């Protein structure tokens, strides 16, 4: 396993946000993490990237215990995160924002920049525009592009489709698939459970800080409890679309 999270507990003050989360992500996989608002999805990603300390448990990345490694070293080790919301630098241009993503790397970044512009032609067109004046969807792309500039081995994506129009949602899911196809492992948090499960190899369901289900994504798509809770009831969407 590339990434192994075992029994991780995280508190905000006295409130337990994670109560012993165990999950793993293998090299080359897309793993989805789904769950209701407040279930602990963002906290799980932040804990993996080193933005929240663990109260219990451990995180092993590529065979190495990184539970106490500071966040900036985890970026160098190969853990990349595109945060929930945007978290880009509004006063910097698109290109400057992208270059910030590679600050920790040595050597030329021209190849990575060209790859990001190939994945997101919109960013290439707007390379001199200030980040803060990009639209919501464009800022989302910029945040993902910036995370890719660090050449992560695993990319943590927190709600990449949030706030996007349906056509852009499809585009973002296509791009995630493309990024994975180029060799980057992905841990994906999504409210858009249907599309996330269609894209992912495996998935975990998080409820109030605990993993309550884990299975191949295709199985969860057919799971009555998952359908009722996260996929808009027992409506047979695919069947309806095919008729
Ligand atoms: N900075 C914080 N201070 C206090 N409590 C927090 C903080 N951040 C998160 N929490 C609490 O921790 C729990 C998990 O929050 P988290 O943001 O991980 O949920 P989530 O699954 O990402 O939800 P959403 O789908 O709404 O983004 C929630 O109960 C939340 O209120
Ligand atoms: Mg969240």
Automatic annotation (TrEMBL):
<keyword id="KW-0067">ATP-binding</keyword>
<dbReference type="InterPro" id="IPR030660">
    <property type="entry name" value="ABC_branched_ATPase_LivF/BraG"/>
</dbReference>
<dbReference type="Pfam" id="PF00005">
    <property type="entry name" value="ABC_tran"/>
</dbReference>
<dbReference type="GO" id="GO:0005524">
    <property type="term" value="F:ATP binding"/>
</dbReference>
<comment type="similarity">
    <text>Belongs to the ABC transporter superfamily.</text>
</comment>
<dbReference type="InterPro" id="IPR003593">
    <property type="entry name" value="AAA+_ATPase"/>
</dbReference>
<keyword id="KW-0547">Nucleotide-binding</keyword>
<keyword id="KW-0029">Amino-acid transport</keyword>
<dbReference type="InterPro" id="IPR052156">
    <property type="entry name" value="BCAA_Transport_ATP-bd_LivF"/>
</dbReference>
<dbReference type="InterPro" id="IPR017871">
    <property type="entry name" value="ABC_transporter-like_CS"/>
</dbReference>
<feature type="domain" description="ABC transporter">
    <location>
        <begin position="3"/>
        <end position="233"/>
    </location>
</feature>
<keyword id="KW-0813">Transport</keyword>
<protein>
    <submittedName>
        <fullName>ABC transporter ATP-binding protein</fullName>
    </submittedName>
</protein>
<dbReference type="InterPro" id="IPR003439">
    <property type="entry name" value="ABC_transporter-like_ATP-bd"/>
</dbReference>
<dbReference type="InterPro" id="IPR027417">
    <property type="entry name" value="P-loop_NTPase"/>
</dbReference>
């Amino acid at each position: 396993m590339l990434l192994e999270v075992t029994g991780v507990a995280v508190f905000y003050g006295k409130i337990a946000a994670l109560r012993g989360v165990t999950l793993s992500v293998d090299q080359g996989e897309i793993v989805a993490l789904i769950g209701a608002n407040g279930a602990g999805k963002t906290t799980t990603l932040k804990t993996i990237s080193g933005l929240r300390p663990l109260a219990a448990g451990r995180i092993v990345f590529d065979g190495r215990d990184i539970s106490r490694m500071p966040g900036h070293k985890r970026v160098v080790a190969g853990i990349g995160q595109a945060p929930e919301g945007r978290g880009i630098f509004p006063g910097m241009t698109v290109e400057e924002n992208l270059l910030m993503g590679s600050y920790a790397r040595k050597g030329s970044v021209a190849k990575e920049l060209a790859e990001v512009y190939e994945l997101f032609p919109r960013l290439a067109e707007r390379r001199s525009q200030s980040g803060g004046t990009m639209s919501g969807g464009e800022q989302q792309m910029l945040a993902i592009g910036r995370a890719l500039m660090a050449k992560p081995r695993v990319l943590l994506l927190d709600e990449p489709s949030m706030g996007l129009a349906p056509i852009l949602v499809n585009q973002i899911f296509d791009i995630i698939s493309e990024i994975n196809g180029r060799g980057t492992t992905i841990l994906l948090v999504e409210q858009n459970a249907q599309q996330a499960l269609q894209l992912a190899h495996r998935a975990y369901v998080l409820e109030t800080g605990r993993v309550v289900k884990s299975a191949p994504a295709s199985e969860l798509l057919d799971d009555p409890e998952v359908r009722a809770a996260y996929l808009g009831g027992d409506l047979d969407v695919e069947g309806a679309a095919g008729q």
